[in-house]
Design a protein that fits this description.
The protein is α+β, with helices and mostly antiparallel strands. The protein folds into 2 domains: 93 residues; 51 residues, no CATH class. It contains 4 helices and 4 strands. A 4-stranded mixed beta sheet has the order 3-1-2-4. Helix 1 runs antiparallel to helix 2. It is rod-shaped, with a radius of gyration of 43 Å. About 7% of the residues have low confidence. The structure holds zinc ion. Zinc ion (ZN) binds next to loops. Keywords: Membrane, Transmembrane, Transmembrane helix.
Length: 176
């Protein structure tokens, strides 16, 4: 509508910059034009003393001016609502990005802590090494051989001191 006026007098599209400026000030332009028309109507009515000749000024200038003032005001309000909506959209995106960052930051340490705990507990052995106090072998925590026995955790130093041998069923490994 802005770039193609009725009648096709200006086939070339208006440059985007001009369109942007017109879009920004059109509400004010229309409202001010309406104000000028109203003022002209007031002058015309003041100059005429015959009520019959005042009527055309009211109809042409007064109603037209009022309509333009209302239209300009509506455009200004619409532009403000549009700008507010754009600002709200930008805020939503920022909150979303922030939320993504927080979730990512919160989820990173958990696996790292688990990995460190696994390594401290004996590498690939799930939950560390265990041995029955009177036993001669050491096991993984999940081994069937110690499932119903009072097994206690042992480290590589205790295994060497007691001369424990690895269980042939669960085949535990001492971390290097
Ligand atoms: Zn075992």
């Amino acid at each position: 509508m802005d770039t193609q006026p009725a009648g096709g007098q200006h086939p070339r599209p208006t440059p985007r910059v001009v369109v942007g400026i017109l879009r920004a000030v059109r509400g004010w332009l229309i409202a001010v034009t309406g104000g000028v028309l109203l003022f002209g109507c007031y002058l015309g009515v003041s100059a005429e003393t015959d009520p019959g000749r005042q009527l055309p000024y009211f109809v042409s200038g007064g109603l037209g001016g009022l309509a333009l003032v209302f239209l300009g005001s509506a455009l200004l309000v619409a532009d403000q609502i549009d700008a507010a909506a754009k600002g709200r959209g930008r805020l939503d995106r920022q909150v979303e990005e922030l939320h993504t960052l927080i979730v990512a930051a919160a989820s990173v340490p958990a696996p790292a802590v688990t990995t460190v705990a696994d390594q401290a507990a004996g590498g690939q052995n799930d939950g560390g090494l265990f041995a029955v106090p009177a036993g001669r072998t050491y096991h993984r925590r999940s081994c069937e051989m110690i499932a119903s026995k009072p097994a206690q955790p042992v480290d590589s130093a205790q295994i060497a001191a007691r001369g424990l041998t690895p269980c042939t069923i669960c085949e535990p490994k001492i971390a290097a």
